Structure formats: structure tokens, C-alpha cells
């Protein structure tokens, strides 16, 4: 079974530029997550999709970050304009369902995109 | 809000030594608890999980028991190998009324095993 795919793996940009990341979840997984992992910290959720609807975007800096999940499959995360503090690894994860009380949905993570903002 | 606290790293052990990485949590609901591992240059992989009090998760010789009374989920392994060198993350997923399934992670603990 193919895992979560992400691209690019690495990206270097200058501050105030824009950048986009792509994620393809595991086939059949309804829920998709974007996490930000700053060096030396644990991942932090940015946004969660259930199919193509947003479930939680409370931690997404909406003045500069945006994300979409068209047709409930692939997703893109965009930063415009980037700041130095956006340097991090951006992780995409997917899970089968919605995480109901009876569910112990496991999240499967992609390899991440390492962003460096100069 | 919900949170996870892990012991500070790095942890440096000799091969075949006993490993414990402490993890405690704060949650208002009834969380599931997880350990994820991140090997150098790779993405996060689920190591083990437990979904209710007194459950024991285990995988690849690692174990962790969900202790509700001490709000802990410590990771243990009886005999570590050089190949276990990685960063270990403790995480919770709240399954309470506001459940969305999102994971809340600790800061990670780096384990280095020397031959």
C-alpha cells in the first residue's frame, strides 16, 4: 500500500516570497492533516480536513497561510508571504475516518517538506 | 488545553541497556495515547498506541502502559540497539466531546545508542 506522498522534499526561499506544498494521502483516507514541526519541537496541527471540508483551522495563521483539498483527495498548503519563523518541516498525515469515540484512527505521516526561509 | 510533556533529551545509552522515556499528559477528555518515532531523514512512524486506561501498547520490543491515575504513558524497552537511535514523540488524541482526532505532541526525546 502506498504511503502519504509529499512534494517537494526541500525548499529554500527568501522572506516575503510565496511557496506551496503538495500532499497526496493514502487512498481511501477521508481525513487529512497538515502539521508544522519547528526544529526541536513536536509537530503542531495547522489544519484538518474531513473529505474536502475544514474541521479545524484554529492554529492556522490565516493572514499568510491557506490550504485547500479539492475533491477530497490531494491537498495543497500555501504560504504567502513567508516569514523567517516559517522555517520548519511541514508534515502531511492522513487517517481513514473522523476519529469517533469508537475509532482509534491511526494517522500516517508523509516524509515532510523542509522549508528554509532566508 | 490538552498537553503532553516528555523528559528532556538527549538520552544516550549503550547497546543492550534498559530504556525509559517518561511521558505525562493533561487532558479534559478520554484520550488515546501514542508513541511515534522519527528515524533520521524519515517521517513519523507510529510505534505503539493505547486507547484506554491500563491498556498496554507494544511493538518491536517497546512497551508503554496507559496509567490514568498518574496520567502517564512511559516508553520502555529492555535492551536497546544502535538501530533504535531516533527521536521519540509522545502524543495524545482527545476522543471527548470536541474530538476532531488531532494529535497533540510532546517536544520529542532524542535517543542515541552507542555500540
Fill in the keyword field for this structure.
A: 118 residues, seven-stranded mixed β-sheet, four-stranded antiparallel β-sheet, globular, B: 115 residues, mainly beta, six-stranded mixed β-sheet
Could you provide a short overview of the structure?
Chain A is an all-beta fold and 118 residues long. Helix content of chain A is 0%, strand content 47%. The termini of chain A are far apart.
What does this protein look like?
The complex is a heterodimer of chains A (118) and B (115). By secondary structure, chain A is mostly beta strands. Chain A has strands spanning 5-7, 10-13, 19-24, 31-37, 44-50, 53-56, 65-68, 75-79, 88-95, 108-109, 113-117. In chain A, strands 2, 4, 5, 6, 9, 10 and 11 form a 7-stranded mixed β-sheet that branches. In chain A, a hairpin with a 2-residue loop joins strand 5 and strand 6 (53-56). Mean pLDDT of chain A is 91; it is low at 99-103. Chain B has 115 residues and is mainly β. Chain B is 0% helix and 50% strand. Chain B is built from no helices and 12 strands. Chain B has strands spanning 3-6, 11-14, 19-21, 23-26, 32-38, 44-50, 56-59, 62-65, 75-77, 86-93, 103-105, 109-114. Chain B is globular. In chain B, 38% of the residues are buried. The chains are: A mainly beta (118), B mainly beta (115). At the A-B interface, strand 4, strand 5, strand 9 and strand 10 of A face strand 6, strand 10 and strand 11 of B.
Average pLDDT for all residues of chain B: 92
- Biggest sheet overview of chain B: 6 strands, mixed
Rg of chain A, please? 14 Å
Q: Give the fraction of residues assigned to helices of chain B.
A: under 10%
**Overall shape of chain A:** globular
Distance between the termini of chain A: 37 Å
Number of helices of chain A: 0
- Ranges of chain B where pLDDT stays below 50 over 5 or more residues in a row are none
- Average pLDDT of chain A: 91
Calculate Rg of chain B over CA atoms: 14 Å
Biggest interface found:
A-B, 30 and 24 residues
Total of DSSP H or I helical runs spanning 4+ residues of chain B:
0
The sequence of SSEs of chain B as H and E is EEEEEEEEEEEE
General shape of chain B: globular
Return the string of H and E elements of chain A.
EEEEEEEEEEE
Total strands of chain A: the figure is 11
- Give me the secondary-structure category of chain B: mainly beta
Please give the alpha-carbon distance between the first and last residues of chain B: 41 Å
Low-confidence stretches of chain A: 99-103
Amino acid at each position: 500500500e502506498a504511503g502519504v506522498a509529499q512534494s517537494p522534499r526541500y525548499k529554500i526561499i527568501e522572506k516575503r516570497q510565496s511557496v506551496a506544498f503538495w500532499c497526496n494521502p493514502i487512498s481511501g483516507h477521508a481525513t487529512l492533516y497538515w502539521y508544522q514541526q519547528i526544529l526541536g519541537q513536536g509537530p503542531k496541527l495547522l489544519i484538518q480536513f474531513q473529505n474536502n471540508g475544514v474541521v479545524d483551522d484554529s492554529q492556522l495563521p490565516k493572514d499568510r497561510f491557506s490550504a485547500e483539498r479539492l475533491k477530497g483527495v490531494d491537498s495543497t498548503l500555501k504560504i504567502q508571504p513567508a516569514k523567517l519563523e516559517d522555517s520548519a518541516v511541514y508534515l502531511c498525515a492522513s487517517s481513514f475516518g473522523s476519529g469517533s469515540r469508537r475509532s482509534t484512527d491511526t494517522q500516517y505521516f508523509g516524509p515532510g517538506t523542509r522549508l528554509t526561509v532566508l | 488545553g490538552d498537553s503532553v510533556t516528555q523528559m528532556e533529551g538527549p538520552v544516550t545509552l549503550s547497546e543492550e541497556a534498559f530504556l525509559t522515556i517518561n511521558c505525562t499528559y493533561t487532558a479534559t477528555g478520554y484520550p488515546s495515547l501514542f508513541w511515534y518515532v522519527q528515524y533520521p531523514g524519515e517521517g513519523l512512524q507510529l510505534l505503539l498506541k493505547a486507547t484506554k486506561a491500563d491498556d498496554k501498547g507494544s511493538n518491536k520490543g517497546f512497551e508503554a502502559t496507559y496509567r490514568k491515575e498518574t496520567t502517564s504513558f512511559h516508553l520502555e524497552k529492555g535492551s536497546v540497539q544502535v538501530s533504535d537511535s531516533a527521536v521519540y514523540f509522545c502524543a495524545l488524541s482527545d476522543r471527548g466531546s470536541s474530538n476532531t482526532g488531532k494529535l497533540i505532541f510532546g517536544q520529542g526525546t532524542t535517543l542515541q545508542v552507542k555500540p
